[in-house]
Design goal:
The chain is mostly beta strands and about 500 residues long. It contains five helices and 34 strands. The chain has a four-stranded antiparallel sheet, with no helix packed on it. Strands 6-7-8-9 form a four-stranded antiparallel sheet, with no helix packed on it. A hairpin with a 5-residue loop joins strand 2 and strand 3. It is elongated, with a radius of gyration of 26 Å. The N terminus is likely disordered.
């Protein structure tokens, strides 16, 4: 039509193809034709139940090519290294636990067995851990174990000794990754032909802090090469509460960048996570290649009852399509005595999301129980259901992630139904009022329970999606109009598309 206006051509000159196309477009508008869908998301929703493992801190999960997840963590007695495996992440909760190594009675490696990590390198398993000595339990240094074979449960373990750095100071939390600047696979390692690095925490000589983050190349799995680089020391207020700490580094590679998390401050409710970022093509041994967030990226949350989240690792979901954050925390804030004497740090998992600019969005440590989902629109795939001023709506680029996360729990009004509980306002649910969808606090009434309950259906516009039919307004589904949510009829293709969402 634009071309006809500009040239003065008549409808007859436009030709039968253009007339037919315009007629089809107008008819589609009249009958409410649905926009073309974008298809299911690349990273679908995952569902786990927290805590994953009680009384296990500093968790590390390695997803191996044999289809198993391998799990190790600090035990509260600080006296041994344990290992579990399962085909699923949730299965680690009940998987058999095997002790693969026990502390020495005297000398080195005789106290404070901390933060083990397990890695598969060149056909063997290696465990990195920290330990003190019998004559000085705070003389913490890093050590390495090597398996005798490819099955860590059937192997014997050889002690490769201390992982030596140029400075004989407090050191712990060794982790390793491979990085290929040529663009190897993304994730926790990069290409197998890349350079292997060690990252760890150590007290820098002559610096008044407890620990900073270091990186160095590795000559073999138990030896570094070259001069280590100090990447970060605790300088911000949130890094220096109780102790001046940067520790527990972990790396994930995504979107042309390397993201290195670390934990800061004392191991109580002040414990939190920071983030370093470098380009995937940068020299990782150059401190100038890395930038540091000015604020923590993952902190305690009063609303969800989670305190001191940190010392994380990364893995992926069973289908490999979603990144998973693994970490520990406690479900109470006040601790009597030294936090290190408190045994109740627990292993937890939740999905790691990504912002539109390619940076990770950690959100908040979610409540105990089932993990939440996000709901992306079928016909506006860059928009998500979220609450703002307690009104439910569709928005894009929701950087306050928890506003767009909801736990799908058993329906308040009856079996076989669901209710959607806010991730950052536990006890508040999506419900309809005068056909508008709001986030309201459960007042315990029958009316509220019915208004906040839905039947989960296959997507009205496509079976890969989901639709939510009102429990007490049959035939009406949660759908969007002008980016606000209502419970409304879904009688046309366009309305069915408006009432279809994908779990992410």
């Amino acid at each position: 039509m634009t071309r006809q206006v500009r040239t003065g051509r008549s409808w007859s000159q436009a030709g039968p193809i253009m007339v037919t196309a315009l007629f089809a477009l107008l008819m589609g508008l009249v009958v409410g034709a649905a926009p073309a869908p974008a298809g299911p998301p690349a990273s679908p929703g995952v569902r786990y139940t927290n805590p994953l493992v009680e009384q296990r801190a500093d968790p590390h999960i390695f997803k191996h090519a044999d289809g198993y997840y391998y799990y190790t963590a600090t035990v509260p007695e600080y006296d041994r290294i344990i290992l579990r495996r399962s085909k699923t992440l949730q299965g680690l909760s009940t998987a058999r636990e095997q002790v693969i190594w026990t502390k020495h009675r005297t000398g080195e490696m005789a106290a404070h067995i901390w933060a083990p990590e397990i890695h598969f390198i060149d056909g063997r398993w290696y465990v990195y851990f920290a330990a003190g000595s019998s004559d000085d339990v705070w003389r913490i240094r890093m050590y390495v174990l090597e398996s005798s074979g490819a099955d860590p449960f059937a192997s014997t373990w050889a002690e490769k000794g201390q992982l030596v750095t140029p400075w004989d100071t407090f050191s712990l939390d060794a982790s390793t990754f491979v990085h290929d600047t040529g663009g190897g696979p993304e994730g926790q390692g990069g290409g197998k032909d890349g350079v292997r690095y060690l990252i760890w925490a150590q007290q820098p000589p002559g610096v008044d802090v407890n620990s900073g983050i270091y990186i160095a190349r590795m000559r073999n799995p138990w030896t570094i090469s070259g001069t280590p680089t100090l990447l970060s020391t605790p300088t911000y207020g949130w890094e220096t509460v109780g102790f001046k700490v940067n520790e527990g580094p972990a790396v994930i590679r995504r979107n042309g960048r390397l993201f290195m998390t670390y934990s800061a401050s004392a191991t109580d409710a002040n414990y939190c996570m920071g983030l370093l970022t470098a380009s995937a093509s940068a020299d990782l041994l150059d401190p100038a290649s890395w930038s540091k967030t000015r604020t923590p990226v993952f902190t305690s949350n009063d609303a969800t009852g989670q305190y001191g989240p940190g010392h994380n690792s990364f893995t992926t979901s069973e289908d490999g399509r979603s990144d998973i954050l693994v970490y520990h925390d406690r479900n109470y804030e006040e601790i009597d005595g030294d936090p290190l004497d408190d045994p109740n740090r627990r292993t937890r998992v939740q999905k790691l999301y990504w912002n539109a600019d390619g940076t990770p969005n950690f959100g908040i440590p979610v409540s105990d129980g089932v993990t939440p989902y996000r709901f992306s629109s079928y016909n506006h795939p860059d928009r998500f259901i979220r609450h703002r001023d307690f009104r439910a709506r569709l928005d894009r680029n929701v950087t306050n992630l928890a506003d767009s996360q909801f736990r799908m729990v058993p329906g308040l009004a009856g079996s076989g139904t669901v209710s959607l509980e806010s991730a950052n306002h536990p006890g508040y649910y999506l419900r309809h009022r005068d056909h508008e969808v709001w986030l309201d606090r459960d007042d315990g009434s029958t009316r509220f329970s019915r208004d906040a309950t839905f039947h989960r259906r296959s997507g009205l516009a496509g079976p890969a999606g989901v639709s939510l039919e009102s429990y007490n307004r049959p035939g009406r589904h949660v759908g969007h109009s002008a980016h606000l949510l209502y419970v409304q009829p879904a009688e046309t293709p366009a309305a069915r598309a408006d009432a279809t969402f994908y779990l992410e």
